[in-house]
Amino acid sequence: MAGSPTRIAVFIDWQNAYKAAREAFGLRSLPNERGNFSPFKLARILVAGHGRGESAALVRVEVHRGLPSSARDPVGYGANRRQAAAWITEGGSIVVPRLRPLRYPPSRVVDQTPVEKGIDVQLALAVAETILTDTADVAILFTHDTDLLPAVEMVVRLKGARRIETASWSSRSFAQRLREVPGVHHHRISGKVFELVETPVNYAHRSA
């Protein structure tokens, strides 16, 4: 509709973004809560970027991440759930945590950590579905994972480069990002901006 604000949906590859923040901004030696950030605050900054200012509307923030087992890791499960609840409290129905169970090795195997499986596929499909169904005018994908590049390329091929944008953390010592795709705008999020959205909360504590 003419005159309507541009509808923006933001998609965050959580574990990738969290680990990258700790590396980009010198937080790896600090407690695990350093690197946590507010998806809603970050999304609002991204929506206003690329010269849009207040001419765009944030319609959805999807946070894709793995979910620990309540039986095998009750502390991690509880922390994950409390963090997701905090995201929803802050952003309301706009924020949608997409939690996919982690894959664990057989119980007899020791010294092996669970891994995320299917998160990148789930995230790629969510981006594609949003644009192909015109649920949003622009999708912004926040990740440093090169496996998600095909999702960007598909949107460009089917709907045009203006319908998709990418974003990543950026510092003097860290420049990892998805490979540039012609016509696709990329948001480089600096340490100063990260400080505005960081939420250094330890969600393993029930009082968090």
Q: Which spans have pLDDT < 50 for at least 5 consecutive residues?
A: none
Order of helices and strands: EHHEHEHEHEEH
Share of residues in strands: 15-25%
CATH superfamily: 5'-nuclease
Shape: globular
Q: What count of domains describes the coordinates?
A: 1
CA(first)-CA(last) distance: 43 Å
* CATH architectural type: 3-Layer(aba) Sandwich
- Widest sheet, order of strands: 3-2-1-4-5-6
Compute the number of helices.
6
Question: Please, could you describe this protein's structure?
Answer:
It is built from six helices and six strands, in the order βααβαβαβαββα. With 208 residues, the chain is an alpha/beta fold. α4 packs parallel to α5 (149-159). The chain is globular, with a radius of gyration of 17 Å. The protein starts with 5 loop residues before the first strand and ends in an 11-residue tail after the last helix.
Can you tag this structure with a few keywords?
208 residues; alpha/beta; Rossmann fold; six-stranded parallel β-sheet; 6 helices; 6 strands; 34% helix; 20% strand
TL;DR of this structure?
34% of the residues lie in helices and 20% in strands. It has 208 residues and is an alpha/beta fold.
